[in-house]
Amino acid sequence: MKLKTAIIQMDIAYGHPEENYKRAEGWLQKAANEGCQLAVLPELWTTGYDLTRLDEIADREASQTIAFLSEQAKKHQMHLIGGSVANETANGVENTLLVINKQGELLKKYSKLHLFRLMEEEKFLKAGEGDGLFTLENAQMAAFICYDIRFPEWLRKHVLSGANVLFIPAEWPLARTDHWRTLLIARAIENQSYVVGCNRSGEDPKNKFAGHSMIIDPWGEIIAEAGEEEELLIGEIDLAKVPEIRERIPVFEDRRVEFYR
Ligand SMILES: NC(=O)CCC(=O)C(=O)O
């Protein structure tokens, strides 16, 4: 199965959800015009990191964003890894990723497991407690959010459950571009899986962001990589490559878990 995939490396209007819905609508139209079957949005794309105003701008139960993405998915017949949003729940505000299929159905909500202190997430957000697994087009996939990629054991747990396409929406600062690129490539090589990292571009009052979204194949080869600026990045995910690579180097057969359980 092959999936023509669009990464929407957009700039985000700080604290302005209505403006960001408009921007995302424009980018999704462009992805549809290019014949993409799946599109990925960045982390916290409706609000950016305007965390001190979450009481005004968070999306209650992510309902407005789910309605928006569902309509867009149906209109363009495109699966959406709908980035993440500030999701106001009874538990507090979570940083929640949404997966919507092309029929407009919500397949998955995943709330960021590891909160990132350098951007004060722990002061304003509640950490999630669920996994990132979902099935799309009969293939098992998983999604994570930004800082989560620094925890290889978390991604590996999903790969051992069968996921072999790993999506990572992010707001990763320019100051650590090398970490972003290196960690994404490493996660692809060690898990012999596709890695699709969707970062934002632009800046907010505290950070300039790296861009450099990437699609990396299970051998670790970069299929597509964006620059720092806004861009619609397109590449193909070919699931047949996964068993091919796992046969070439049978890492999963060679594990000796009795020594490192
Ligand atoms: N939004 C984030 O989780 C940023 C993570 C990050 O910058 C890092 O270095 O890790």
Automatic annotation (TrEMBL):
<dbReference type="InterPro" id="IPR003010">
    <property type="entry name" value="C-N_Hydrolase"/>
</dbReference>
<dbReference type="GO" id="GO:0016787">
    <property type="term" value="F:hydrolase activity"/>
</dbReference>
<protein>
    <submittedName>
        <fullName>Hydrolase</fullName>
    </submittedName>
</protein>
<dbReference type="InterPro" id="IPR036526">
    <property type="entry name" value="C-N_Hydrolase_sf"/>
</dbReference>
<feature type="domain" description="CN hydrolase">
    <location>
        <begin position="3"/>
        <end position="239"/>
    </location>
</feature>
<comment type="similarity">
    <text>Belongs to the carbon-nitrogen hydrolase superfamily. NIT1/NIT2 family.</text>
</comment>
<dbReference type="InterPro" id="IPR001110">
    <property type="entry name" value="UPF0012_CS"/>
</dbReference>
<dbReference type="Pfam" id="PF00795">
    <property type="entry name" value="CN_hydrolase"/>
</dbReference>
<keyword id="KW-0378">Hydrolase</keyword>
